[in-house]
Design goal:
mainly beta, Jelly Rolls, 2 domains, metal-binding, Man6P_isomerase_Firm_short
């Protein structure tokens, strides 16, 4: 049977720093006005996407991974490797750092580490991210954290829509207030909080910090994640390559007209962040609209996308 795109229904997560941008921008049916994350393409045990239509309608992505590994090129592994999120940082997120595979596997019940990246969909004027730190040694890192010298420790960078940041494990990071991001990452939910602005949750409790783990996993001195961006234009499409790295490659497809495309990875994860189009393959077509998320399985024949739309695409 000819493979077709597999459209997925997301999971939503409420966060102390969340807002309504996921509804306002993409029309999602969010659970509250504090919705921080849309787990758009996920097979993680804490939230797995569900197939919306077609042959596998009603099955979760985790079930497809378990029972239909042919859709993913038969690649090995006990868990689906990637996770695509949309993040609404209505308020600044906590300052945090993620472990690598080895540390997470040893200390977090075999969980994957978390290398991730951000594509800035939208942000308010003068929005910032935290990306890295200034400490030159572990001792200096400990001293600056213990003294609360956050202005001295944290590297802040101004951002604009369309910016891309690669955030390897070990990188201290945070999204600033008024930022809407598509995040591609390893399928992991392990982050260690460095600082949280002394905020309280709904019950009045300050949120836990994880300073022991932070000291253990933070890369010192900070090293910027290497990205080697390139752009290729041809009939109907401009493809920007943001990163081709150990855990994932990430691209932006800007469709304007009719683009002829092929799926040459074990599978591809696709998110429509702007516009509309039609994906056609061997006589069948699927409507694409802003906010859609879908998977292109292995053995997907060559296809076209017609319209005016922008997609963020990733693969292992």
């Amino acid at each position: 049977m000819t493979q077709s795109p597999i459209f997925l229904r997301p999971i939503y997560k409420e966060k102390i720093w969340g807002g309504t941008a996921l509804h306002d921008t993409f029309g999602y049916d969010i659970p509250s006005e504090k919705t921080g994350e849309c787990w758009a393409i996920s097979a993680h045990p804490k939230g797995t996407s569900t197939v919306i239509s077609g042959e596998y309608k009603g099955k979760t992505l985790a079930e497809l991974w378990e029972h239909h590994r042919e859709l993913f090129g038969g690649i090995e592994g006990d868990r689906f490797p990637l996770l695509t999120k949309m993040i609404d940082a209505n308020k600044a997120t906590s300052i945090q750092v993620n472990p690598d595979d080895y540390y997470a596997g040893e200390k977090e019940n075999g969980e994957l580490g978390k290398t991730q990246c951000w594509y800035i969909i939208d942000c308010k004027d003068n929005a910032e991210i935290v990306y890295g730190h200034t400490a030159r040694t572990k001792t200096e890192l400990v001293t600056m954290i213990n003294s609360g010298d956050w202005d001295g420790l944290l590297r802040k960078m101004k951002i604009r829509p369309g910016d891309f940041y690669y955030v390897p494990s070990g990188t201290i990071h945070a999204l600033g207030e008024g930022t809407l991001v598509l995040e591609t990452e390893q399928s992991s939910d392990i982050s260690y909080r460095v600082y949280d602005y002394d905020r309280s949750d709904q019950k009045g409790n300050t949120r836990e910090l994880h300073l022991g783990q932070v000291i253990n996993v933070t890369t010192v001195p900070h090293v910027d994640g290497f990205i080697d961006e390139s752009t290729e234009s041809r009939k109907g499409i401009t493809i920007k390559t943001f990163v081709q790295a150990e855990y994932f490659s990430v691209y932006r497809w800007e469709i304007n007209g009719t683009a002829e495309l092929s799926q040459d990875a074990p599978f591809m994860l696709c998110s429509v962040i702007e516009g509309n189009g039609i994906l056609a393959c061997e006589g069948r077509s699927s409507e694409l609209k802003k906010g859609d998320h879908f998977l292109l399985p292995d053995d997907m024949p060559d296809f076209t996308i017609e319209g005016a739309c922008t997609l963020i695409v990733s693969h292992i």
